[in-house]
């Protein structure tokens, strides 16, 4: 780099003091304001400090040149050599810390430091052998530094030029100054070869080059700030497009991605949207906590993402809702096929803290351009199709069809009405008698929820429960229904109608709730109904979705003296294997199996088997949906314990129960005869 040639050096001109101050200022600025990630600027700041040391050393050497044995001369020599090669070392170490490139290894860095120390020592030798070996001294003091400066400037300039950073003004200025500085060193070296003994004098050009380098390095500080701002802005944009829980696209970003696909000049095939609404997640949140629900959401998002092709998009577009953008499809059937695949993927249970939890998903499909021409509408239509399927059967695939939106608006209206139904006393209970077989006496009643809607008339329990689970009202309505039913049946018992058992249905959400036993105990206490006269009914699907949780909650009820019945048996997995894990007292055979027992040999054999196996485990058997005498005779002949259905008695309001009880058994005895 710059030599220590005394007064001939550009740093020893009359303005040397101001130049010294300038080098210190540039170095201090680079060291003070370089950020934590700008290691190269700290090295370059150290290089400018070394340059200042070299200037001071050159001044001291020039001052004490006449007395080479003085301490001032020695310190000047040391400072001049350290500054000269420390500057070059700082340049190359700074260039090795560019963020876009691989940094130097520790071994390579150690070799550079050793080389700088060795060159500095040789330079010091050159000062002291000058009186004896002037040619060797000149080579060690000047030629060696010129060669080193040329090599370092060329290497650093090459490294800086390998990348094109977004904000590179400072880096290009530094690179330009290095090229000029390296060219200047080469020119001086050639001059010394052609004219031995020629002085090393950078002159005004050296001052300009040094100023250009200082300006470039300070500009790098601003470039780093701009880069940090750009990274922060990009991170904000990324965060605003990403769902924080699952890491997937959020709803706005998903719609933008779909619109971008739609607006491509020449799209490769059509595309469709698959919407997935998770079932029973609210029950998991209520019973096991939101942390468990969040884990299921994260696992669901990852499972769906891994099931899609490269190029397809997946986003979380609601609390328990996901959407997939399926591109490159030729027809609607292709999207439907993907939807079925995703629905099957979601059927696999999740393992959380040693528990197997099943949430399943209701899936809807819409396709561009058949259903809509914009992404937001397509997403709404797929959502409508999914919720329409969820209302019917749950865990299936629905395809959008014209007219579904009207149904969705109607559902929203119904949800709004349900929120006010309790206050308006529109919810009522009907009671369907349960008959012993073959004695034809009334064992008790099943409480059935009804809604006297001002516009739609009497609405059944399936619609009410579906709406209540969606709106979060299921627990409030369930507590009201259980307490009201207990009060009604206890009133009949007090009138002398003994013994009567109340069968009360509990939804999947209620079954998963930790406070189920507490609500049952409260209803029994406030009504006065003995626990032995209450039977809680759960559905087969609700029980097997989370057997361990269901077992824990049902055991609490059993400890209170409450009986447990499983409703709609056979509609789930049609297996008795899990019955060993549940504390059951009663099995209710679904009406779909009773309907054809007299004409379908398969159904008849299945019902016969269920009765035999259940009674072998000391479980009571109830046949639902008995509508013909032929069905009733079949059940009595097979030893079925209980039956209920329209043939025997329809559900009735509470005010009709007292009048029904005495003659209900009599009419049945006179009507039914078994061959």
CATH class bucket of the largest domain: Alpha Beta
Please tell me the total number of domains.
Answer: 3
CATH architecture of the largest domain: Alpha-Beta Barrel
User: Which structural class matches the secondary elements?
Assistant: alpha/beta
* Alpha carbon gap, first and last residue: 119 Å
Beta strands, count? 16
**Mean residue pLDDT:** 78
Mass-distribution shape: rod-shaped
Molecular structure report:
The protein has helices at 16-33, 39-63, 71-95, 106-128, 134-160, 169-194, 203-241, 251-262, 281-288, 290-307, 332-347, 375-392, 404-421, 461-471, 474-494, 508-512, 516-527, 540-545, 547-560, 591-594, 601-616, 629-637, 657-671; strands at residues 270-278, 313-318, 321-329, 350-352, 355-357, 361-368, 397-399, 427-436, 442-453, 457-459, 501-505, 534-539, 563-569, 586-589, 620-623, 642-643. With 675 residues, it is α/β, with parallel strands linked by helices. The chain folds into three domains: 6-236; 251-402, Alpha-Beta Plaits (2-Layer Sandwich); 413-670, EAL domain (TIM Barrel). The strands form three sheets. The chain has an eight-stranded mixed β-barrel with strand order 8-9-11-12-13-14-15-16, surrounded by four helices. Helix 12 (375-392) crosses helix 13, helix 13 packs across helix 14 and helix 15 packs parallel to helix 17 (516-527). The chain is rod-shaped.
């Amino acid at each position: 780099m710059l030599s220590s040639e005394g007064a001939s050096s550009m740093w020893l001109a009359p303005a040397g003091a101001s130049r010294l101050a300038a080098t210190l200022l540039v170095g201090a600025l680079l060291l003070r304001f370089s950020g934590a990630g700008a290691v190269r600027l700290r090295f370059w700041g150290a290089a400018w400090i070394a340059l200042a040391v070299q200037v001071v050393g050159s001044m001291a050497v020039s001052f004490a040149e006449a007395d080479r044995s003085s301490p001032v001369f020695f310190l000047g020599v040391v400072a001049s050599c350290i500054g000269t090669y420390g500057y070059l070392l700082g340049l190359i170490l700074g260039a090795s810390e560019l963020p876009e490139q691989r940094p130097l290894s520790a071994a390579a860095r150690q070799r550079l430091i050793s080389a700088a120390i060795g060159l500095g020592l040789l330079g010091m030798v050159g000062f002291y052998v000058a009186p004896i070996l002037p040619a060797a001294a000149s080579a060690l003091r000047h030629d060696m530094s010129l060669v080193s400066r040329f090599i370092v400037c060329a290497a650093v300039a090459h490294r800086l030029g390998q990348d094109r950073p977004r904000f590179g003004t400072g880096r290009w200025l530094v690179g330009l100054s290095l090229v000029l500085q390296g060219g200047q060193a080469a020119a001086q070296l050639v001059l010394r070869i052609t004219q031995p003994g020629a002085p090393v004098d950078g002159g005004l050009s050296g001052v300009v080059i040094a100023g250009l380098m200082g300006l470039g390095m300070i500009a790098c500080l601003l470039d780093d700030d701009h880069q940090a701002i750009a990274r922060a802005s990009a991170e904000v944009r990324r965060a605003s497009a990403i769902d924080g829980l699952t890491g997937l696209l959020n709803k706005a970003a998903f719609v933008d991605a779909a619109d971008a696909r739609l607006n491509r000049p020449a799209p490769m095939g059509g595309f469709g949207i698959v919407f997935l609404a998770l079932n029973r997640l609210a029950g998991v949140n209520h019973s096991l906590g939101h942390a468990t629900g969040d884990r299921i959401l994260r696992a669901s998002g990852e499972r769906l993402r891994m099931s899609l092709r490269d190029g397809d998009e997946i986003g979380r577009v609601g609390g328990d809702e996901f959407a997939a953008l399926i591109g490159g499809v030729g027809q609607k059937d292709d999207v439907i096929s993907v939807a079925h695949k995703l629905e099957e993927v979601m059927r696999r249970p999740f393992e959380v803290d040693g528990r197997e939890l099943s949430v399943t998903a209701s899936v809807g499909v819409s396709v561009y351009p058949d259903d809509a021409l914009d992404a937001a509408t397509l997403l709404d239509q797929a959502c409508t199709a999914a919720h329409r399927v969820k209302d019917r059967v749950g865990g299936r695939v629905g395809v959008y069809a014209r007219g579904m939106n009207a149904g969705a608006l109607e559902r929203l209206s119904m949800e709004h009405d349900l929120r006010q139904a309790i206050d308006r006393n529109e919810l009522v209970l009907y009671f369907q008698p349960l008959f012993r077989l073959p004695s034809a006496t009334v064992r008790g009643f099943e409480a059935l929820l009804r809604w006297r809607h001002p516009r739609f008339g009497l609405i059944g329990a399936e619609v009410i429960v579906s709406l209540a689970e969606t709106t979060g009202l299921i627990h409030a309505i369930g507590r009201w229904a259980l307490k009201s039913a207990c009060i009604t049946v206890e009133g009949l018992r007090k009138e002398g109608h003994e013994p009567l058992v109340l069968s009360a249905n509990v939804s999947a959400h209620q079954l998963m709730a930790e406070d189920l036993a507490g609500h049952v105990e409260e209803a029994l206490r406030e009504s006065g109904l003995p626990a032995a006269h209450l039977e809680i009914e759960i559905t087969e699907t609700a029980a097997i979705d989370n057997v361990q949780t269901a077992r824990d909650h049902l055991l609490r009820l059993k400890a209170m003296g409450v009986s447990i019945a499983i409703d709609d048996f056979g509609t789930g997995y049609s297996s008795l294997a899990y019955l060993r894990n549940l504390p059951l007292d009663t099995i209710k055979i679904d009406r779909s199996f009773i309907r054809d027992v007299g004409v379908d040999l398969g159904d008849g054999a299945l019902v016969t088997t269920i009765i035999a196996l259940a009674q072998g485990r000391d479980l009571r058997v109830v046949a639902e949906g008995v509508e013909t005498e032929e069905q009733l005779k079949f059940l009595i002949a097979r030893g079925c314990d209980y039956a209920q259905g329209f043939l025997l008695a329809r559900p009735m309001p509470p005010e009709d129960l007292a009048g029904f009880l005495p003659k209900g058994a009599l009419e049945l005895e006179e009507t039914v005869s078994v061959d």
